Amino acid sequence: MDLxxxxxxxxxxxEALNFYHTVFGGELNIMTYGDLDGSCPDGMRDHVMHGTLxxxxxxxxxxxxxxxxxxxxxxxxxxxxxFDEASLCSKYEALSENGTIVVPLDRQMWGDLFGAFQDxxxxxxxxxxxxx
Length: 132
What we know:
3 helices
């Protein structure tokens, strides 16, 4: 199981990821909203839907917030991911108890099981159970 910070930006994620890449090294991968869905709003087409910086000194994921989604102040999402479905389902259930489910844990279009919630302390979590 991994715990990766997921950093959210307001349109400047690519710039931030490129900077972090020069500082920390590793492999940088970026997928834009336009790469995922050609029908996305023109203003979001080149924004980062999902970026990763892995294999360097630190590992994390990042993206530009979808249009209309407020960022808040200093907010991050903690992302648990791995292949152990039983363990990660257990973590999802325990952490989300008395919290607010945002995305029920379910199979998503990319093939993995995914769910998101805010725990009872106001911490935002994502759980992704990998299939490959």
